[in-house]
Design a protein that fits this description.
About 40% of the residues lie in helices and about 20% in strands. The protein is an alpha+beta fold.
Length: about 210
């Protein structure tokens, strides 16, 4: 084996080893967390099985499915119709990034806050505290939906569009490992008239006509 071939082989092995380790870390986080049947967590009437199945991530569209689930909770049609062609806009499918999501949201007139960086934890808590679900980076290259946070024991409840029959409850340490495996990114829907609206930057605004 030549020196060049040897270096390539070792590089490939190191890459594969890193992937296996990352998979093991993410799997161990989920296995150690408490899993609650969705019917028990949500009740029989809200977010029923057939609706959850419709938002199963079968097309690599986890960002849009997770935001759409938040749209159901907050009754925002512009959000819960994201994965399909409707009167509210063309379907948004496939992988996404903060830049792409912000562009898609603006094209629909969807009021949303896309947050990156370590401030995501504060915004997640703000969202849950103010009656919202939050689409979050959770796991390697994956998005899920934060549906609850208990400040007393600092547990986090997450619905996963890849495992839609359960809600998983994480300790704070487990949740932070899960979130950081993806990178700090979360999305909040602001279109909720009965709740306070933040005035910070990075809000995706509907274009308003100039006052005459």
């Amino acid at each position: 084996m030549s020196e060049e071939t040897r270096h390539k082989f070792l590089g490939v092995m190191a890459f594969l080893t890193a992937l296996v380790l990352l998979w093991w870390v993410c799997s161990s986080i989920a296995e150690g967390a408490e899993r609650i049947r969705a019917e028990v967590y949500f009740g029989e009437d809200f977010f029923p099985r057939e609706q959850r199945e419709a938002y199963e991530n079968s097309s690599g569209s986890c960002v849009y499915m997770s935001v759409a689930a938040a749209g159901i909770y907050q009754n925002v049609p512009l959000a819960w119709t994201l994965p399909w062609d409707t009167e509210y806009g063309e379907a948004c499918r496939g992988g996404s990034t903060p830049t792409r999501f912000e562009r898609d949201a603006k094209s629909r007139g969807l009021l949303a806050l896309s947050v990156t960086g370590t401030q995501t934890y504060d915004w997640m808590k703000w969202g849950i505290r103010n009656g919202r679900w939050v689409a979050i980076g959770a796991g390697r290259q994956h998005f899920q939906t934060l549906v609850g946070h208990n400040p007393e024991n600092d547990t986090w409840d997450v619905w996963n569009c890849n495992d839609y029959h359960v809600v998983t409850r994480y300790t704070d340490a487990e949740f932070r490992r899960l979130h950081e495996a993806c990178g700090h990114w979360c999305i909040l829907l602001l279109d909720y008239p009965s709740m306070p609206r933040p005035k910070e930057m990075n809000v995706i605004e509907k274009e308003e006509e100039e006052k005459k």
